[in-house]
Amino acid sequence: MNRSWNRPVADSAVQARSARRYLRALAGIGLCLAWAGASEAQTREEQAFLRSAANHFGFAEREVAFLAQGEASPDEIPVVLHLARQAGVSAEAILALRRGGLSWTDLLRRYGMHAGQLHVDLETVPREGALGRAYETFAGRPRSSWEVIRLADDQVVALVALSFLSRYLQISPEQVAVALAGSLSPVEAYRALLGRRSA
After folding, report:
1. What is the rounded CA–CA span in Å between residue 148 and residue 115?
2. Nearest to 173 by CA among 164, 184, 185, 183
3. pTM score above 0.90
């Protein structure tokens, strides 16, 4: 029996497709492991806060979990998502510019926004914390000049959190302002407000 040991070589296109499938599978495994690591690095409160921010601003939860592994803290993620949505750019682009040294006010201006657009009308104005300082700045100027206000980064974070939490939790901005005006961070305020709402 005449047997040839020379097997036909598989078509190169088939080999290329198999290699691509293999690499995609490896990348998918790596992505899942990285996501699991990202979740472990965050507390349950931070994860819940980030999920709520993702839902409110219309981003995928997994994407937001990854964003929080960069240089932005979970407290700052709503600012990233707000700017990205308003400017029509990716959240990664906002974070890259932030890492490049731009303040939140610089980023607002870069995309045609300003501090006055973050203002939420309150019946009782907070007097302490970053939120209190922001409202003090607004009170010291006529509304027509709010577009030139330069807020500190923590003030921008507090103002975005005020709007986000009051809308997402469907509670009055005054309730959120009370929680934020003390020493509570947005994540801590979120936890406290959820606890009060479920009590």
Report:
1. 8
2. 164
3. no
Q: Give the start-end residues of each E strand in 16-111.
A: none
Task: Kindly report the backbone phi and psi dihedral angles of residue 77, in degrees, each rounded to the nearest multiple of 5, phi listed first.
Answer: -60, -40
The list of the chain residues with pLDDT below 50 reads 3-10, 14, 19, 23, 25-39
Any idea how long the chain is?
199
User: Could you tell me if 50 and 42 are in contact, meaning their C-beta atoms sit under 8 angstroms apart?
Assistant: yes
pLDDT of residue 32: 42
Helices 173-181 and 129-139: crossing angle, nearest 10°?
120
Domain residue spans in the chain? 13-42, 43-198
Burial of residue 45 (number of CB atoms within 10 Å: 0-12, 13-18, 19+): middle
**C-alpha torsion sign, points 71, 74, 75, 78:** positive
